[in-house]
Amino acid sequence: MNSVGIMSSAGIGKVLADWAVDGDAPSDLWAIDIARVDPLTATPAHLATRMEEAVSDLFALHWPFKQPKAGRNLRKSALHERWAAQGAVFGLTAGWERGLWYAHDERERNLPYAIGEQPWYPIAVREAAVMDRGAALIDLSPFTKIDVRGADALALLQHVATANIDVTVGRAVYTPFLNGRGGIEADVTVTRLGSEHFRVVSGAATRWKDGAHLRRAATGLDAVIEDVTEKFCVVGLMGAAARHVLGNLSHDDWTDFAFSTAREVTVAATRCLATRLSFVGELGWELMIPAAGAATVFDALIDAGARPFGHYALDACRIEKGYRHWGHDLGPDITPLEAGLAFTIDWSKDFRGKNALLHQRSMGLGRRMVLLDVSGHPLMLHDEPIFEGGKVVGMTTSGARGARTGLTLALGLVSIAETETLAQTCARNFKIHVAGQDYVSRALAKPPFDAAGKRMQA
User: Fold this and answer.
1) How many domains does the chain have?
2) Domain end call among 307, 340, 362
């Protein structure tokens, strides 16, 4: 850490001591957590390549969304070349190469960086528009996939999850994992595949952290934790035509297929696990396919009319639904009650962090996460101050311009009075300060895109 290590040594010593005594990190330490680092980045060759660019970048303009050029291609899915053939402009996501957008020509492949309106935004709009009548294909292979098996697998997951995991085989459950302070350590989906077999799926960036969290919690239990991330490719098929496309490639029933359920299916003569979920708020399924057979399914979906959909379009759609993601909107210092995720809590069972949540619920919340409609279309990223009456009352946690609504939106945590309702929060007058200017911002009671979820549950 060089000089940074010297300057930070006292603080590092304090948090390590608190961590050792209390068993939990005393605050959100994700920015310096070794678990955020992919082991492949520790090779001497990679370090030498990245160091040269990292040092030179210290003196370069820090563009929003800037991608490194050195040390790339550490992790590529089995479908990498097929995404490339569809025009993928790849970016780095936690060590994985992933299509940020899909170019139709050389001009779209070489778009410049910008500090205002992003040149790729019209492409994200184009990609999202496919879902209105057609089907979009999303690369979700970097998802972390961890199998939990054994006689104590259920007991383990019931302990770490706020939601009830004791569900029927084939149910997919969205749930946070908490620390002892009630903060969110992981944001996952748990699918029950058998009486003693569960699959935990989370974001790419938290792969090593989530695995370590489960292994620590499993100490002394009859439970086996296995990372199966690279055994499978995952593609999301989303949009109004998703059911029609899959029906033409499969003899399985895609109509009597409830939301938040999973089942083994055959698509293009290939067995895979289909889960009816959506992070974009559209009708769709996530197909988890053994890596060896993924190309067959991919080719069939493209031939059937599915079109590629990039990571930037994904973010521009999830913000329109107010969906949170771990690392910005959610983290160890934010509780489910503050984040608007109380619906994930089963108060009838015990789980780690429950006492902290009970105490917070009895005392009343001091802050609330809200979705804000920001006027003037500034470039929203995260950590922009939120003002009310000339005083800072919160910070944004993430932001983007919606690909379907065209609204500039941001999630943010704002201070609230002890008994303040959501309606009262939405009636307040907020401004967000971005690049020296204030932008009037309105807290929304409901997400601006398909608030009732009719498209997703069609």
Assistant:
1) 3
2) 362
